[in-house]
Write a structure and sequence with these properties.
- By secondary structure, this protein is mainly beta.
- It has three helices and 26 strands.
- The strands form six sheets. It has a seven-stranded antiparallel beta sheet with strand order 18-12-9-14-7-6-26. Strands 5-23-22-25-20-19 form a six-stranded antiparallel beta sheet. It has a four-stranded antiparallel beta sheet with strand order 1-17-3-2, with no helix packed on it.
- Strand 15 and strand 16 form a beta hairpin.
- It is globular and about 75 Å long.
- It starts with a strand and ends in a 32-residue tail after the last helix.
- Bound molecules: fe (ii) ion.
- The site of fe (ii) ion has 5 residues, from loops.
Length: 419
């Protein structure tokens, strides 16, 4: 995120003395990416950021992965995972839906209790907020979040979720960094005119966040750390590290690395005379995957255009659509609804249900919202994905699955217009 910010107090020159009113030095920390060769920030701590007193194993939620074998398109109904008001913690309650060696997609419905302090040392997190609101407290400052936000949290940023209400969260955990697509950026990192959003839409912290001396009270503070462990399932391990001082002790920082939010309402969809391919809907990229969003928009205006997509064999990708808003009345037949995920794997053509093609002719507007993750490596199913699966989905194009009764028409487009 090559967009400079400065909060709180920093000395005029980096790596020089910065003292509190009593003359004590603050402790400078450089937090940087790619071995001192990419974006970084300098943070000034009251305490020593490496002062730990204990490290113990944190048993992560189930990280087991089941291959998509035999190969099938899948429909996962995430809203079946937390039913009857069940909630879980925003960090420890995440259920693994899909995963490969580049990215893990999870799902959790929170209550209003704060999460433990946490950081992901494996990669950046991009948490899509399906519903709910609250704050994310970080050592850089506090972010507010609301429905439709992507909350971007750089690798190794200590933070905790403080929901103001029950919140449905869709964490996309990378093994890399997550950033705007390079083609949207100038050679120096500014978002270009053809990009569907700009810096004004990215909301970082606005002031330092210091936990008061009273609440610090000299008490040790536990932080859950997700980190790389080569021999554990998925290469993912957890440790519970205890710090001698509170991690939220940064009096000031500056640089180009920090957490921020971006809301899908601020994404300006790019439309065309004929059907536009998914890359025009891209919002972020990580290593070996992209994040796109399909949002309410005018559609194709060629007199003979077909607004729904052609069948496509995206031979290099697995495609994950998470349906988050819009009018799904016209889509009965496949069982897809808000809260659904479709996984359309590489090596298998997919597209609209046959009846959706004729039904789309003449459409001028699509009222629908979905978040898509496309991965170049195949995705395995996590325990949450297996638990949420609708096993009939794979056969719906042939009219033999979903919620279609035998001998009955499906009544309309059964697959999302861009899937
Ligand atoms: Fe697709």
């Amino acid at each position: 995120m090559a967009y400079y910010r400065q909060l709180g107090t920093v000395p005029p020159k980096r790596h020089t003395q910065h003292r509190d009113p009593d003359g004590h030095l603050y402790y400078e920390e450089l937090m940087g990416e790619e071995g001192f060769s990419s974006d970084s920030s300098l943070l000034y701590h009251r305490g020593v950021p490496s002062a730990i007193v204990r490290s113990e194993v944190w048993e992560l939620p189930d990280q087991a992965r089941t291959p998509n074998h035999p190969l099938k398109p899948r429909h996962l109904k995430l809203h079946t995972l937390f039913e009857d008001g069940a909630t879980a913690d925003a960090v420890t309650g995440r259920r693994l839906i899909l995963a490969n060696s580049d990215v893990r997609i999870a799902y959790v419905v929170t209550g209003a209790d704060p999460s433990p302090y946490y950081r992901n040392a494996i990669g950046d997190e991009c948490v899509y907020v399906e519903s709910g609101s609250g704050t994310v407290e970080t050592l850089f400052g506090v972010l507010s979040y609301r429905a439709g936000d992507y909350v971007l949290i750089p690798r190794a940023t200590t933070h905790r979720w403080v929901p103001g209400e029950s919140s449905r969260l869709y964490p996309i955990e990378a093994n890399s960094h997550i950033a705007p697509p390079k083609r949207y950026l100038s050679r120096y990192g500014q978002l270009l005119e053809h990009a569907p959003y700009c810096e004004r839409d990215l909301h970082g912290p606005t002031e330092p966040f210091l936990v008061s001396a009273e609440s610090e009270g000299g008490t040790d503070v536990e932080v859950l750390v997700k980190h790389r462990v080569g021999t554990l399932p998925g290469g993912v391990g957890g440790s519970r590290m205890t710090y001698a001082t509170h991690p939220f002790d940064v009096v000031g920082w500056d640089g180009c690395l920090y957490p921020y939010t971006f809301n899908i309402e601020d994404y300006m969809p790019i439309t065309g005379k004929v059907h536009q391919p998914p890359p025009v809907h891209q919002v972020f990229e990580g290593h070996n995957f992209v994040v796109c969003n399909f949002l309410p928009r005018k559609v194709d205006y060629h007199p003979l255009s077909i607004p729904v997509p052609y069948y496509h064999s995206n031979v290099d990708s697995d495609e994950v659509m998470f349906y988050v808003g819009g009018d799904y009345e016209a889509r009965k037949g496949s069982g897809i609804n808000i809260g659904s995920i479709s996984l359309h794997p590489g090596g298998h053509a997919h597209g609209p249900q046959p009846s959706a093609i004729e039904a789309s002719l003449g459409a001028e507007y699509f009222d629908e919202s979905a978040v898509m993750v496309d991965t170049f490596a195949p995705l395995d199913l996590g325990e949450g994905g297996l638990a949420a699966e609708d096993p009939a989905y794979a056969w719906t194009w042939a009219g033999r699955g979903g919620d279609i009764a035998e001998g009955e028409s499906d009544g309309g487009p059964a697959v999302f217009s861009n899937s």
